[in-house]
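Weekly puzzle thread! Below is a chain. First person to post its structure in C-alpha cell form gets bragging rights.
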Amino acid sequence: MASQGTTRIDELRGRIQKDPASIAFAQLADEYRRAGRFGDAITTARAGLARHPGYLSARVTLGRALLEVGELDDAYRELTDVLKQAPENLAAIRGLAEVHRRRGELPEALEQFKNAFELAGSDPGINQLVRDIRRDPGQKTARSAPHHGASAGNVGDAALASADGPDQARARRVSAYLHRWLEAIMAERRCRLYPA
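Winning reply:
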C-alpha cells in the first residue's frame, strides 16, 4: 500500500504532467523535500521557477532543499532573495539562520534568530534553533544538553557548564549574550502587553 506522501506526490506529478505551467510544482517540490528527496525537490522547484520566478514559497522550498544537501551558497541566495521581497517570511528567516549556523557565523545566525523570535515568539522549532546555536557544534557537550524545559533561559546551560577550551569558552560567551538578549526581548514584550 502506498503511503499518503507517495500518493500526494503521484497526484501532484499527474497535475503537472497534464499542465506543465501549473503552480502545483511548488507543492510537489515541498512534498519531495518533506519526504527527504532533496534532489527531486531542487529539480522540481528550479523547473517551476523557470516559469514562475516570483513564486516565493517555491523559492523557500528550494532554499531549504539546497540547505539539506549542503549547497549553502545557493541556499543563502534563494533565501535572501525571498527576504528582500517578504521580510517577514518565517521559513526563509529560519532557513537563513541555519545557513549562517552551518557556516559558523553565529552573530548572523543570532540576528536571524532574533527576527524569527520576534515574529513567532515561543515556537518549538525556534526553541530547537536556540539549542543548536547555544551549543558548540560537533562537541561532546551536545549530548548532555537538556531536552526538557526548553525555555530560552535554560537551554544548553548544563552542556555549556561542563565545557572547557577556547571553543567552549566562545560558546559560553555566545550563550550568555543570547540569554541576555532574549531576556531583554521578553521584558520589552511584557512592557508592551502589560503597561504600568
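Puzzle host: Confirmed. Bonus trivia for everyone else. The radius of gyration is 19 Å.
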